[in-house]
Amino acid sequence: MVSEPEEPFIKIINEPLKSKNPLVIGGFPGIGLVGNISCQHIIEELGMKHIGSIDSKYFPPVAVLFNGIVFMPVRIYEDAKNEIVVVISDIPIHPTASYDVSRALVTWIKSINAKHLVSIAGIATTTGEKKVFGGATNPEMLELIKDKTEIFQVGTISGISGSIMTECFLKKMPAISLLGETGGPNPDPRAAIEVLNVINKLFSLSIDTEKLTAEAESIEHELSKLAEQVQTTESSQSTGKEYPMYG
Fold first, then answer.
1. Which CATH architecture has domain 23-241?
2. What pLDDT does 225 receive?
3. d(CA 181, CA 172)
4. Contacts of 161 (CB under 8 A, 6+ apart)
5. Cβ–Cβ contacts within 10 Å for residue 197, how many?
6. Which DSSP helix (H) or strand (E) runs through 182?
7. What is the pLDDT of residues 164-223, one digit of tens each?
8. Domain locations along the chain
9. Helix runs in 114-223, H state only
10. What span, in angstroms and rounded, lies between the C-alpha atoms of 166 and 156?
11. By the 8 A CB rule, do 26 and 105 touch?
12. Which residues of the chain fall short of a pLDDT of 50?
């Protein structure tokens, strides 16, 4: 009897990209949902096309609906004109799956000849400010962001954002981490706005944030349940000594 081949842990399914050397931006639910909010706004403002998804048998059994149509919870979008690809998740990635998801994702990013990756997440502080902290996988990428972010000197990036950055380092994929300063686990579109302002400066983009500013309160309310799920998922993870960072 011939056994069937084992199903891969992670599946990335996508249409052929039109972009030759895209900028890849990734946002997964984390503290303040900064990555999720930022990426969703980029997708809407640039009118990006849904081109693929990431699936795993270890993802929670969830279907996402937009206007009554079912979508996968982890999706890939492309703006061929600006050569931008966005990977966004509407589910928290459990720590036990983070390494495999990161490995598969970064391998795929290299396969599409991405020039670099921007990983967006939140950073919890008690300052009440809205700075954007930055880190990079090599000196060249650090040079790119040093005048536009507060370089994070000592600390850790936990969760999926941390494992993505580690995998980029191991695979020599140029990458930067942009961490929007937020006061806690609740959805923080204002922190996302500051991250988007940095992305505009770094890559000469003109992503409008006025709509996000106007809808900040309703977004905070709508995403509060997802924020609670993220907090539960991350409760077992360790944090840095100076500032706790979350993916």
1. 3-Layer(aba) Sandwich (3.40)
2. 63
3. 27
4. 26, 28, 30, 35, 119, 120, 121, 177, 245, 246, 247
5. 15
6. strand 175-182
7. 999 999 999 999 999 999 987 788 999 999 999 999 999 999 999 988 888 777 766 666
8. 23-241
9. 139-145, 159-170, 189-203, 210-214, 216-222
10. 11
11. yes
12. 1-5, 237-247
